[in-house]
Amino acid sequence: MTIKLVGLTGSIGMGKSTVGRMFEKEGIPIYNADAEVHKLYDKGGVAVEPIRAVFPEAIVDDQVDRPTLSKLVIGNEEAIKKLESIVHPLVHEDREQFLKNAAEAGHKMAILDVPLIYEKGGQERLDKVLVVSAPYDVQKDRVLARDDMSLEKFEQILARQVPDEKKRELADHVINTHCTEEETHEQVKALIKDLKEDFGHA
Predict the structure, then answer these.
(1) DSSP type of residue 146
(2) Is the pTM of this model over 0.90?
(3) Contact 124, 80 (CB under 8 A)
(4) Residue in 185, 17, 156 with CA at minimum distance from that of residue 79
(5) Ranges of the chain whose pLDDT falls below 50
(6) Domains of the chain: residue spans and CATH
(7) Residue 76: DSSP 8-state
(8) Can you give the pLDDT at residue 58?
């Protein structure tokens, strides 16, 4: 089973989810770590009880209340580590199953949408890394338009992320989202063609 792994990353507000959906539209299977975490946090999700044991106030109506959990962990390194020790193994197990299914379905390449590839050294197991990027002012406007977001919270999140400029330097490919969705989609289509050629799948 040899399936090429392409990491999709980018700092908060850069348009990573939008770009991920574009890859899906082009028939490339994509694993979205954030979406999986949402499932783990929902009612009946396997992360609910382990999180209740450590952060009981974050559980509301038998599911994880993300804004409450966020307040409990952001800026608290020890709390973040505790949360990651619960969530990361569950996501890893689910991702391995996704890749197995993709390979068995005959796919030669899969996208892993992972916010913290460079922060966690995840690039070591990837064949290529794509970084989604936009100018800082655009990023800031997008993020501050979200519900439950403040400038302080935005700055705390950024402080935990490898700077955009460094990500672009490290990336194999950069997708610019400071343009129309159509123009971004054209970049994605061109990139898929390049990746297939790089991987010998053309």
Answers:
(1) S
(2) no
(3) no
(4) 156
(5) 1, 202
(6) 1-29+109-196 (3.40.50.300), 35-106 (no CATH)
(7) -
(8) 95
